[in-house]
Amino acid sequence: MATAEVETFKPELRLILDGSMGSELHDTYPKVPDFYKLWSTAYLIHKPEYIVDLHKRYIQAGADVITTNNYSTVPRFLNNVGMLDRMEELVKLSGELAVKAVDTMRPTTKRPILIAGCIPPLNYSFQGEKIEKMEEASLLYEKIANALKPSVHFYLCETMSSLDEAIASLTGVTRVSDKPIWISLSLQDNDKCVLHSEEPLKEVLPIILDRFPKLLAVSLNCSNHYTITKGLDTVMEVVKGRKNIKYIAAYANDLNPIPDKEAVNKLWERFDGPSGFPAKPHNLDVTNYRDTIKGWVDKGCNVVGGCCGVGPAFIEEISKHWFPAREVRLVPPKV
After folding, report:
1. Is 308 annotated for ligand binding?
2. Helix (H) or strand (E) segment spanning residue 15
3. Is 169 left (phi over 0), alpha (psi -120 to 50) or beta?
4. Is 250 helix (H, G, I), strand (E, B) or coil?
5. What is the DSSP letter of 130?
């Protein structure tokens, strides 16, 4: 899509997503037990009020979409503490907490707020090639989608890092709901423009779009911003002429680059270690990210937000730049 065409977008087609949940909960709120075994799910169990508070902070910062906090409410994490039998209960709770946040904010927020139902990897992120057998995985995704169904406006199959992982998630969701679905893929942080499975984006994305012609949006997420900048060129080429695709979304992380499978393995070895992820300073500056997003918009992107390490301050900066008349506030955590 040419830059000139971007300027014809109606303002209401532009949407701002929220940002990180897990890393923002970890960095900003009091610690809870089992965080390094359960990640953000630990807050569902021990401090659900912090999740509501963070959702509200993103809305106050200008987000049009908040995403349910069930990214790690999946077998790979729950098995760490023997809680797999609570998966559907906790996923359902994540949807209810998002609804509570929106309902609480409704009297003070004039714009509509959408809730995206998170459909995450069933394993740790970036390990899509380790997906369970297709039918087994699809059945698990059915359970997640069904638990979220009463609470969400659409589903966001995010951080999909292999073709099989994407197909399993989309298959499971479409079996239980006719609500809109967005697909979001994650790329290795290198120049190859490949998923973490090493499958080329330009080959994987057409297969997905042909098999699921009712998809509403295509997105790239949980890669570094420079990786997404390059990947969007391929996305725009593939979706050209596909009129069902109404949104092109992008939301980068603020992690150290993850260029190959070795880096993925080291990442999760540290997480499974006695101290979890080592603390690291954030490298992404809010103004730099805002300017990067301007380049994404020039390419044809009309939905932006943040992933791991990108918190409310980033969303506020994007909101002020994208919707200057919108009243936004950067609110500290209420703890």
Report:
1. yes
2. strand 15-16
3. alpha
4. strand
5. G
Distance of CA 73 to the CA centre of its chain: 14
Q: In the β-sheet with 15-16, what is the strand arrangement from edge to edge?
A: 15-16, 303-306, 247-252, 217-221, 181-185, 154-160, 114-119, 65-67
Q: In this predicted model, what pLDDT tens digit does every residue of 11-62 receive, in sequence order? A: 457 999 999 999 999 999 999 999 989 999 999 999 999 999 999 999 999 9
Contact 46, 81 (CB under 8 A): no
What token pair was written down for 101?
A: 């946040």
Question: What are the tokens at 100?
Answer: 């509570």
**3-state SS assignment for residue 203:** helix
Whether pTM > 0.90 for this model: the answer is yes
What structural domains does the chain harbor? 3-322 (3.20.20.330)
Give the residue ranges of the chain where pLDDT is below 50.
1-11
For residue 309, count CB atoms less than 10 angstroms from its CB and return exposed for 0-12, middle for 13-18, buried for 19 or more. Answer: buried
Which two structure tokens, joined as six digits, stand for 212? 């699921």
Alpha-carbon span 52 to 35, nearest angstrom = 18
- For position 275, what pLDDT does the model report? 67
C-alpha to C-alpha distance for 186 and 64, rounded to whole angstroms: 22
222 appears as a binding residue in the annotation: yes
**In this structure, are residues 60 and 329 in contact, taking their beta carbons and an 8 Å threshold?**
yes
At residue 279, the pLDDT reads 59
Is 307 flagged in the annotation as binding? yes
Q: Which of 213, 274, 262, 200 is nearest to 239 (CA)?
A: 213
